[in-house]
Amino acid sequence: MSTAEICEEFGTRPSRISEWYRDRATSGFPEAKRTEGRKRWFDHDEVAEFFAVVEKARAPRKLPASVLDDDQDKLLTAAEVTALLGYSSPSTIYWYLLNVPGYFPEPDETIDGKKWRLGTIVQWVQSRPGKRRAGTVRTAKALPTVSAEGDPDELLGTAEVAALLGFKSVQTFSSSLYQGNLPELEGPDAKVPGLRGQQLNKWRRERVLTAVKRRGSSPGTDDELLDAEAAAGILGYSSTNSFMSALSRGRLPELEEPDLVEVQTGGGKPQKKWAKKRLERIAAGRAAS
Question: At residue 221, what are phi and psi to the nearest 5 degrees?
Answer without folding.
Answer: -70, -30
